[in-house]
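Dear H.,

Thanks for agreeing to be a second pair of eyes. The structure we're designing against is below in token form, covering all 241 positions.
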């Protein structure tokens, strides 16, 4: 399903063979990630309890107290990362209700309105005229669009255009999120859904792993096409029935 735009062809993960390789790979990394996360939890809990006890034993002006704070802060950080990792490895519990998809997308855009304007990002909405009410978990689908849109915004540090198009194709509601950002090098395309793959200095690399888990648990699909230095399109399809 690699599309084309002008003379450049988008490099993408989308055709059937690549898609099944990707699903197997994700299922594998997901299982490994979940078992490692699980194994880390117990010893980490012991470190955390021990650090809390040391904190009680030393007064705040002790030379050791700042080291103890470092241990506590970092165990909290590791605990947060492990929880996020487990969230993307196991399918989330869904609270499925009928929701207006265009309403969810509008909410996501509203929540990042200020970064869109400070980064000079123009938004084009091409919404399907037909009703867009489908059964989804609102909070999780909100997270899907937010993560993908934030990635697009982060890919356009010098401004650009974010185009969000929706359509109904057969039994699927399709959302295309397209940016004119830095694009993804061909060799990275297969890695972007892996937990902890990030090319950003402050990135955790869990955004798209979480997105993938949520989309699949809704019976949907996600694919990506990109041209390095030109832009990227993420296509999310969710079943309408
Ligand atoms: N729209 C995009 N344009 C260019 N590269 C992208 C885009 N979306 C994702 N990527 C690439 O995929 C990588 C993984 O994305 P992902 O959202 O999982 O993690 P992240 O954004 O780096 O960190 P975070 O956990 O904070 O979301 C990014 O670091 C980036 O290299
Ligand atoms: Mg991200």
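And this is the sequence the design step returned. I haven't edited it by hand at all.
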């Amino acid at each position: 399903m690699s599309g084309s735009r002008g003379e450049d062809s988008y490099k993408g993960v989308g055709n059937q063979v690549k898609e099944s390789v990707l699903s197997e790979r994700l299922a594998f990394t997901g299982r490994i990630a979940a078992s490692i996360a699980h194994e880390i939890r117990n010893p980490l809990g012991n470190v955390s309890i021990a650090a809390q006890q040391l904190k009680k034993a030393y007064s705040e002006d002790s030379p050791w107290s700042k080291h103890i704070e470092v241990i506590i802060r970092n165990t909290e950080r590791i605990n947060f990362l492990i929880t996020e990792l487990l969230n993307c490895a196991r399918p989330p519990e869904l609270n499925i209700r009928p929701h207006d998809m265009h309403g969810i997308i509008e909410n996501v855009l509203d929540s990042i309105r200020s970064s869109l304007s400070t980064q000079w990002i123009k938004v084009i909405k091409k919404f399907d005229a037909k009703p867009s009410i489908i059964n989804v978990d609102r909070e999780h689908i909100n997270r899907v669009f937010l993560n993908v849109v934030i990635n697009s915004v982060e890919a356009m540090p010098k401004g650009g255009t974010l185009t969000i198009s929706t359509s109904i194709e057969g039994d699927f509601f399709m959302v295309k999120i397209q940016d004119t950002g830095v694009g993804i090098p061909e060799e990275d395309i297969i890695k972007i859904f892996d937990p902890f793959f990030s090319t950003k200095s402050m990135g955790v690399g869990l955004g798209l792993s979480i997105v993938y888990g949520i989309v699949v648990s809704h019976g949907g699909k996600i694919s990506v096409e990109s041209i390095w230095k030109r832009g990227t399109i993420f296509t999310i399809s969710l079943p309408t029935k």
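Two observations from my side: Residues 16-57 form the longest helix (42 residues). Residues 147, 150-151, 207 surround magnesium ion (ligand 2) (CB under 6 Å).

Warmly,
E.
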